[in-house]
Write a structure and sequence with these properties.
Blueprint lengths: L18 E2 L9 E6 L9 E11 L4 E6 L2 E6 L4 E3 L38 E3 L6 E3 L8
Antiparallel strand pairs: 1-6, 2-3, 2-6, 3-4, 4-5, 7-8
Length: about 140
């Protein structure tokens, strides 16, 4: 019997291993950053963020996180985002066709390659799943 599985957001994360030094951060880069939406100056949860600006003097990176622009990230522990980038994947099954559904390089549940910002990776099998396909919300 299949039902809705409820997993707390704090239990779901994207794998990230490669630390990025502040002086390597550039505009447009996708990073895994720690941010607190309720208290932006304090530690919070880990999110994928896209760099909008780098403030060298203030040691601050400004990112778009969860579709919210202008998030000031002051925690300098940042990692290269390892969320799936379907445009660069080499897949024998779909020949890297971004419009073709593929259960090998897309979401393992629906085969879709869209909505990359809401795709998570399983820590055990490294397969990607859309949050919505798992019955979760972001």
């Amino acid at each position: 019997e299949e039902g809705e599985i409820v997993v707390p957001e704090s239990s779901v994360r994207v794998l990230a291993h490669n630390k990025v030094a502040f002086d390597e951060v550039t505009v447009g880069m996708k990073l895994f950053v720690n941010y607190n939406f309720e208290k932006p100056g304090e530690l919070g949860f880990w999110y994928d963020g896209k760099v909008e600006a780098v403030r060298k003097m203030a040691k601050t990176v400004i990112c778009t996180i969860m579709n919210k622009e202008g998030c000031r990230v002051t925690n300098m522990e940042m990692y290269r985002s390892e969320a799936p980038d379907f445009s660069e994947m080499d897949c024998e099954a779909c020949k890297k066709n971004p419009k073709r559904k593929c259960y090998q390089c897309g979401c393992r549940k629906c085969g879709g390659k869209d909505d990359e910002e809401n795709t998570i990776m399983c820590d055990e099998c490294n397969d990607g799943y859309h949050i919505k396909c798992l019955g979760l919300t972001a």
